[in-house]
Write a structure and sequence with these properties.
The chain has 71 residues and is mainly α. The protein has one domain. It contains 3 helices and no strands.
């Protein structure tokens, strides 16, 4: 005879761990998506600044728009 207490315990553990897995998976997807949006936003801002006109190297162009906004 099957002990239903053990089946219920295993079922509950399976449901809990699947929820934990889905939560972590969703968090990773949202983090990657928001990080991509931040990078895209910075790239657009650096293109608007046009660092070639300012005489700045391409690497420094990411830091300049943020510094000018904080003033």
């Amino acid at each position: 005879m099957v002990s239903w207490g053990r089946v219920a315990d295993l079922t509950q553990r399976t449901i809990v761990w699947s929820m934990v897995g889905l939560t972590v998976y969703a968090g990773v997807i949202l983090t990657r998506r928001s990080y991509g949006m931040i990078q895209r936003h910075r790239k657009i801002k650096s293109l608007e600044l046009s660092p070639a006109d300012e005489g700045l190297p391409q690497e420094m162009s990411l830091a300049v728009p943020e510094a000018s906004e904080q003033r």
